[in-house]
C-alpha cells in the first residue's frame, strides 16, 4: 500500500481512470503478498538512499541529477554508488547522478532519439508506457512535459530501480509504476499516447497485445510501437523454435510489413513505419553495471546471424492512431 497511495489518489481524481479502482488495488494487494525474496533487500537499499534537498534535474536531453556533489560529501557519494550497484543489473539508461554514471547495458538514449522526432509532442499528454523496464523512458517523457506517466512492468527489480531513481531525482509529478503484467490492467480508453517498446515479441498472443494497447488509448490517441522484426514481406513471421539471441520467452518476430497488417487487423489507422535499424554491439553491451553476457555473445563470429542461426536483431518503430 505504501507504494501506491499517491497512485490511488491520482486515479481517484482522474475520472477516466476510475475504472481501474475496482480491480487494480486487489491485484496490487496480491502483488504485495507474493513479492520475491530479493525484494526485501532491495527495499532496504532504497531506504538508505539519501533524500537530496533541492535537487537539480535534467530530463529533456538526459536523465541526470546535476547538483549531487554540492548536496552530499565524497564519502556519501561512494556509499550511494555502492548501494546503486547492489540493484544491478542495470539494463536501461544511462543515468547520471552527479559524478555517478550508471553505464547501462543499453544506450536507451539512442532509441529515444530515434523515436522522439516522429511522435506527437508529449507536452500535456496522458501517457502509458507498457513494459517500462526501470522507467528510463518515463523520465524522458517527463522531460518532454507529459502531464502524467504510468509505467507497467512486472519486474520487481526494475520497480526497485525506478523507486531508487525517483527518490534521488526527488520528483513528485504524476509519474507512477504499476508492477503488474499489462494483460491484467483493465482497458481505460483514455491515454493520449501509449508506448509498447520491446514487449511484443515476448507476448504469446501479439494480436491480443495490440488490441489491449488500442483499448487503453482514447479515440485519436497515438500508439508508439517498437519491436524486433525480420526481413521479409507481408507474409513473413519468424517463430523461433527455442531461444532467439539467447532470449527465452520469445514468440513472434514479424517483418515490418506483416506488422502493419496486424495493426490494420486491430483497426489502427494512420500506420507509419518511422524507423528501422539494426541493433549494434555499441548500443547493447556488457558494462560495469550489467556484467552478464550481452549482444556480442549472442551473435555468430561474423555478426550476421544470431547464435541460433536467425537474422540478427533489427528493430522497427511504428506510430499509429486509434480511430
Ligand atoms: N506481460 C508484461 N507486461 C508488461 N511488461 C512486461 C511483460 N512481460 C515482460 N515485460 C517487460 O517488458 C520489458 C521488455 S525490455 C523493454 C524495456 C523498455 N520498454 C525498452 O524499450 O527498453 C526488452 C528489451 O530489452 O527491449 C521488460 O522490462 C519486461 O519486464
- Report Rg: 20 Å
Per CATH, the class reads Alpha Beta
| SS-based class | alpha/beta
Give the helix level as a range of percent: 25-40%
Low-confidence stretches: none
Shape: globular
Strand order of the largest sheet: 9-8-7-10-11-15-14
Query: What is the number of helices?
Result: 11
Q: In percent terms, what proportion of residues is strand? A: 15-25%
**N→C terminal distance:** 37 Å
CATH superfamily: Vaccinia Virus protein VP39
Summarize the main sheet. Answer: 7 strands, mixed
> What's the mean pLDDT score?
97
Small ligands present: ligand GEK
| H and E string | HHHEEHHEEEEHEHEHEEHEEEHEHE
Number of domains: 1
Can you count the beta strands?
Answer: 15
CATH architectural grouping: 3-Layer(aba) Sandwich
Short description:
With 323 residues, the protein is α/β, with parallel strands linked by helices. The protein has helices at residues 5-13, 24-33, 39-48, 68-71, 74-85, 108-116, 136-143, 156-169, 206-214, 256-265, 295-298, and strands spanning 57-58, 63-65, 92-93, 95-97, 100-102, 106-107, 126-130, 148-152, 175-178, 191-197, 217-228, 237-238, 253-254, 269-278, 314-321. The chain has a single domain (34-321), classed as Vaccinia Virus protein VP39 (Rossmann fold).
Task: Write a concise keyword list for the protein shown above.
Rossmann fold, 4-stranded mixed sheet, Mo5U34_MeTrfas-like, tRNA processing, 7-stranded mixed sheet, 323 residues, 31% helix, alpha/beta, binds ligand GEK
What does this structure look like?
- It is a single chain.
- The chain is α/β, with parallel strands linked by helices and 323 residues long.
- It has a single domain (34-321), classed as Rossmann fold.
- 31% of the residues lie in helices and 22% in strands.
- The chain contains eleven helices and 15 strands.
- It has helices at residues 5-13, 24-33, 39-48, 68-71, 74-85, 108-116, 136-143, 156-169, 206-214, 256-265, 295-298, and strands at residues 57-58, 63-65, 92-93, 95-97, 100-102, 106-107, 126-130, 148-152, 175-178, 191-197, 217-228, 237-238, 253-254, 269-278, 314-321.
- The strands form four sheets. The chain has a seven-stranded mixed β-sheet, sandwiched between helices. Strands 1-2-4-5 form a four-stranded mixed β-sheet. Strands 3-6 form a two-stranded parallel sheet.
- Strand 10, helix 9 and strand 11 (217-228) form a beta-alpha-beta unit.
- It is globular and about 60 Å long.
- The model has no long low-confidence stretch (mean pLDDT 97).
- It binds the ligand Nc1ncnc2c1ncn2[C@@H]1O[C@H](C[S@+](CC[C@H]([NH3+])C(=O)[O-])CC(=O)[O-])[C@@H](O)[C@H]1O.
- Homotetramer.
Amino acid at each position: 500500500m505504501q507504494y501506491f497511495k499517491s497512485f490511488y489518489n491520482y486515479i481517484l481524481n482522474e475520472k477516466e481512470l476510475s475504472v481501474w479502482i475496482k480491480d487494480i488495488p486487489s491485484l496490487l494487494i496480491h502483488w504485495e503478498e507474493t513479492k520475491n525474496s530479493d525484494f526485501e533487500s532491495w527495499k532496504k537499499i532504497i531506504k538508505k538512499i539519501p533524500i537530496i534537498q533541492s535537487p537539480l534535474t535534467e530530463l529533456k536531453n538526459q536523465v541526470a541529477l546535476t547538483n549531487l556533489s554540492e548536496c552530499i560529501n565524497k564519502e556519501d557519494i561512494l556509499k550511494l554508488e555502492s548501494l546503486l550497484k547492489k540493484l544491478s543489473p542495470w539494463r536501461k539508461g544511462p543515468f547520471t547522478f552527479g559524478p555517478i554514471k550508471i553505464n547501462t547495458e543499453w544506450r536507451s538514449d539512442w532509441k529515444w532519439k530515434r523515436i522522439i522526432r516522429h511522435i506527437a509532442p508529449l507536452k500535456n499528454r496522458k501517457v502509458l508506457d507498457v513494459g517500462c523496464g526501470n522507467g528510463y523512458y518515463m523520465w524522458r517523457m517527463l522531460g518532454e512535459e507529459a502531464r502524467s506517466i504510468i509505467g507497467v512492468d512486472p519486474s520487481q527489480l526494475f520497480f526497485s530501480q525506478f523507486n531508487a531513481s525517483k527518490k534521488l531525482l526527488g520528483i513528485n509529478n504524476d509519474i507512477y509504476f504499476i508492477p503488474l503484467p499489462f494483460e491484467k490492467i483493465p482497458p481505460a480508453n483514455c491515454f493520449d499516447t501509449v508506448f509498447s517498446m520491446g514487449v511484443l515479441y515476448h507476448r504469446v498472443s501479439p494480436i491480443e497485445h495490440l488490441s489491449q494497447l488500442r483499448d487503453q488509448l482514447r479515440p485519436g490517441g497515438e500508439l508508439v510501437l517498437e519491436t524486433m522484426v525480420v526481413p521479409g514481406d507481408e507474409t513473413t513471421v519468424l517463430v523461433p523454435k527455442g531461444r532467439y539471441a539467447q532470449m527465452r520467452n520469445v514468440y513472434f518476430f514479424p517483418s515490418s510489413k506483416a506488422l502493419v497488417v496486424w495493426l490494420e487487423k486491430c483497426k489502427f489507422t494512420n500506420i507509419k513505419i518511422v524507423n528501422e535499424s539494426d541493433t549494434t554491439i555499441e548500443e547493447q553491451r556488457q558494462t560495469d553495471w550489467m556484467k552478464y553476457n550481452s549482444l556480442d555473445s549472442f551473435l555468430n563470429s561474423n555478426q550476421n546471424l544470431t547464435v541460433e542461426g536467425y537474422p540478427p536483431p533489427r528493430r522497427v518503430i511504428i506510430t499509429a492512431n486509434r480511430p
